[in-house]
Amino acid sequence: MDKRSLLITSAIAGLLALSTVAAQAHSPKLGKDKEKCAGVAKAGMNDCGTSTHSCAGQSKIDGDANEWMVLPKGTCERIVGGKVVQSEAKQLPKN
Known about the structure:
Elements: H1 3-26, E1 34-38, E2 68-72, E3 83-85
Antiparallel strand pairs: 1-2, 1-3
């Protein structure tokens, strides 16, 4: 591989790595005191993507059952239409 090809390949790899880090920075973090709550987001105020789109802020209607927000634990159950959604994180079996 010549120097020019190596430089181009390195630049592309760097851009891909940077875009991955940027995408992770925008996804909401779920701590032990937070939960995902579906059905309560106003249009354009959802926290993350769904099966119909891939980004936060792209919900089209208020109260869509597929759109979710991160809220403090216990809050979702108090909101009419709110439903706690399980996290995609895999649970490790307890020994």
